[in-house]
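Structure in, sequence out. Go:
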């Protein structure tokens, strides 16, 4: 017999009865390998498992999503991804182990074993967050089930090859699960499906509006109050990015009034708003207007004494771009490198940056600094909630601005209160936690305390 490694033959047994599939999947779900060696499985049984997996998710979403609601066809792509991943990993691992004949068995059994975890994850995750069970615990469970599945089909193979295939498959599965969005088959809606979609696009001359921007920004800057020597002043720039939904304009309006009435910023707030109702009266929320506004505020304030607060609210993308849009204007998007460059260009030392958007946590690392406080509505890989044409304010806006900032002028405490309120609401709704983020620079705390000492007593909150 040759000493070189060759394909390990599959035992010459007839295909195992389908009922064995369920017992094997149960053992894997509990973290154990099936007792008997893996044997070939018919394609029909695999199709049954796929139907069970998709149906389980549909049933869970149906039971957990209240009426009124509407059907989400995009969930089909999201929910099919684990099926395709299971097939791909099973085929690659079985082929690498010289056992391509049991790839169907591996895919079906592994997918069935993980069906409860994957379908219940959107409901369980908020409770795990509430019990402070870290994300890596769920990832470790998925990894262990995958490892046990691959080691099961690798019986009789070289240990090094078996473990290599198992660890590689586990790593791929964990990365995939961590990046999944777990879209629901049903989306709740307060009114009807049409209310979700964007408001009608405005009819105006894009060229005329764009040419008016420098003058609108300069007029807004001219209306700001002067800096007071020896007093830590708070200057704020607020941005409503997506002009197709009023929720962002509403949020900027609430934030502005809160700063002026309770945070001593009256006369020191400049708003950039994308909305059809204000396109000719307020400067747009654009990258160029933000640059001009930052430069103007920096020239007006004492850059070593005063504090800049930048608030941005809009939609956010998974690649960490905040949407700046007012159709038909072709506006650039705001991403972390761009915002970081604009802030450095302005040369303002003390900064409080509040970003209310999906995936806004992707801005934390590029923007954090000793003299900077960064607050975001969601972690880099999570969505936030409450936007839509029928919404008055986002969940983060309600918790942070409408509630927390009306209880305290301490931004750190306001974030703590808002995060707890959002976590509770998401748990009650049974949706995946947005996980708001805060990065507190080592020096910004003392500066904000000095600013709070200068606030009029009337705006202090117990």
């Amino acid at each position: 017999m040759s000493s070189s490694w060759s394909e390990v033959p599959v035992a010459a047994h007839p295909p195992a009865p389908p009922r064995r599939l369920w017992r094997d999947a149960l053992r894997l779900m509990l973290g154990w390998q099936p007792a008997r060696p893996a044997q070939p499985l018919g394609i029909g049984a695999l199709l049954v498992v796929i139907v069970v997996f998709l149906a389980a998710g549909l049933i869970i979403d149906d039971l957990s999503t209240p009426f009124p609601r509407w059907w989400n066809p995009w969930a089909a792509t999201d929910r099919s991804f684990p099926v395709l991943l299971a097939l791909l990993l099973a085929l690659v691992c079985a082929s690498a182990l010289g056992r391509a004949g049991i790839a169907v068995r591996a895919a079906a059994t592994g997918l069935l074993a993980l069906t409860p975890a994957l379908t219940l994850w959107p409901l369980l995750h908020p409770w795990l967050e509430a019990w402070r069970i870290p994300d890596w615990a769920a990832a470790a469970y998925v990894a262990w089930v995958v490892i046990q599945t691959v080691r099961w089909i690798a019986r009789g193979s070289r240990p090094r090859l078996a473990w290599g295939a198992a660890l590689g498959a586990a790593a791929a599965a964990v990365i995939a699960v961590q990046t999944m969005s777990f879209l629901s088959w049903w989306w709740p809606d307060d009114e009807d499906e049409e209310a979700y979609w964007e408001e009608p696009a405005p009819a105006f001359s894009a060229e005329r509006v764009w040419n008016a921007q420098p003058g609108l920004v300069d007029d807004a800057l001219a209306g700001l109050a002067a800096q007071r020597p020896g007093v830590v002043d708070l200057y704020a720039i607020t941005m409503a990015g997506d002009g197709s939904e009023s929720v962002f304009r509403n949020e900027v309006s609430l934030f502005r009034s809160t700063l002026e009435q309770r945070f001593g910023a009256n006369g020191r707030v400049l708003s950039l708003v994308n909305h059809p109702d204000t396109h000719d009266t307020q400067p747009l929320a654009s990258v160029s207007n933000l640059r001009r506004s930052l430069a103007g505020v920096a020239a007006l304030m004492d850059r070593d004494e005063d504090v800049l607060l930048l608030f941005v609210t809009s939609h956010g993308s998974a690649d960490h771009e905040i949407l700046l849009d007012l159709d038909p204007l072709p506006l650039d998007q705001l991403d972390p490198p761009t915002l970081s460059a604009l802030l450095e260009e302005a040369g303002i030392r003390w900064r409080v940056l509040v970003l209310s958007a999906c995936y806004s946590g992707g801005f934390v690392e590029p923007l954090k600094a000793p003299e900077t406080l960064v607050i975001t509505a969601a972690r880099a890989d999570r969505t936030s909630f409450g936007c839509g044409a029928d919404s008055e304010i986002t969940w983060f806006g309600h918790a942070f601005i409408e509630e927390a900032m009306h209880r305290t002028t301490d931004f750190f405490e306001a974030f703590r209160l808002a995060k707890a309120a959002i976590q509770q609401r998401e748990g009650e709704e049974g949706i995946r936690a947005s996980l708001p983020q805060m990065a507190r620079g080592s020096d910004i705390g003392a500066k904000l305390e000095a600013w709070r000492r200068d606030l009029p007593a009337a705006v202090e909150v117990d």
